[in-house]
Fold:
Amino acid sequence: MVEAIEQLQTEANEALAQASDAAALEAWRVDFLGTKGRLKAMMASMRDLSKEERPAFGQRMNAVKESLEVAFESRRSQMDSASPSLPPMDLTEPGMPGRLGQRHVLTRTIDEIVEVFARMGFSVAEGPEVEDEWHNFNALNIPEDHPARDSSENFFLGAGRMLRSQTSTVQIRVMEQSPPPLKIMTCGRVYRPDTHDATHYSMFHQVEGLCIDRGVTMIDLKSALFQFARAYFGPEAEVRMRPSFFPFTEPSAEVDMKMKIKGRWQWVELGGCGMVDPNVLKAVDIDPEEWTGYAFGLGIERIAMRRYGISDIRWLYENDERFLRQF
Ligand code: FA5
Structure:
């Protein structure tokens, strides 16, 4: 009898080692440990033993049963960890398309604007967003009592610091550092406590241009703006200048560009421009008798909105993927 039990245990262990998947393992369990399995059948043969032989046989069978149950559990957990219960992989199924990120429509507009002005011979300058009043006002010929200096028009930070309200600050920084002739442009953020609506935001971007040389005139200014308009908005774009006032240019003008919006040609106001005021040149030790120059500053959001048909500036800052993915 003992040999028969040992024989069964050896067979069971060998069969278990060969069970290579969950189905084979289950078949093994049914065959050896199941209610109609081989262990149960051998247990039943206890009937044929004498009363004295039965306890030893029973104990032996229980030990075998326990050891097979332990072996079964360990084989099962071995299989589970080797192949976690994931659905089988279908290699013929089409893959998930990778989603590439893209530049924000404003970043793209800035890159396009820089490229156009670079082709026109402007070099790119930069300036800080946290400024002082000298660069934001004084050097730009903006007097102490000018309404543009009001605290309701600016973000003052204390200790003479503020968030710049215009990129014209970069004109001063460049002229302080480099002697003329100069032909520079800059793109950057500016800040004003304007109420948010479809065309205004409290943080927006401007593109600023400055050209200082001998004999520069309004014709050069209009030509530069005209070339930009044609290069950026298309060969039929036009430029119009309306008389205006800025403390740092004399004469000054508002710049409008004519562009096609939804199939119709329209004039759109984009910014300001003019001939650099002699007082600004004097503030940075440039002789206005020898040098003249022009400057312009355009709103980049307004340009992007026109170019890409965006009717509300706030969408540019909401980071809604459904909006951003369109460009
Ligand atoms: C200026 O900021 C002058 N520095 C421009 C300039 C530069 C004139 C050099 C002369 C020489 P203005 O405040 O008009 O100008 O602003 C220029 C443009 O910025 C506006 O035409 C508009 O396109 C944009 N802009 C102004 N305020 C906002 C705002 N709250 N939200 C979005 N865009 C604005």
Q: What stands out?
A: The chain has two domains: 2-81, 105-324. Residues 3 and 306 are 94 Å apart (CA to CA). Residues 166, 168, 192, 194, 200-201, 204, 206, 208, 246, 249, 252, 269-274, 295-297, 299, 301-302, 313 surround adenosine-5'-[phenylalaninyl-phosphate] (CB under 6 Å). The mean pLDDT is 93.
